[in-house]
Amino acid sequence: MRTNGSFAAGAAIVGALVLLSVFGPIVYQVDPLDQALRSRLAPPIWAGGTATNPLGADGFGRDILARLLHGGRVSIGISAAAIVVACLMLGIYFHDLYTQFRIRS
Questions:
Q1: Predicted confidence (pLDDT) at residue 11 exceeds the cutoff of 70
Q2: What residue segments make up the domains of the chain, in order of their start?
Q3: Which of 22, 86, 88, 100 is the most buried (most CB within 10 A)?
Q4: Cβ within 8 Å of residue 68, ≥6 positions away
């Protein structure tokens, strides 16, 4: 069975993002709400920034990488809850259809 290269690439990217979001805060232990006013608006590391804020800092001095990892974790949790609710609703719907149209023998 042949696999589509685009599908494999997309699945790898989504898998990497999920792994980063789930395990990123464990590896990169920086509080996303911690403010360091001395590093306000720090540039990312590729634009001359430091390794303490690899993606830079916002106007309040909060680390952008820590905020992205924390936000990804919240988004994955909300997505998982939405999938569970959708599956339950589909199950209820199909159960109702089955009970309404079943043929009694």
A1: yes
A2: 5-101
A3: 22
A4: 55
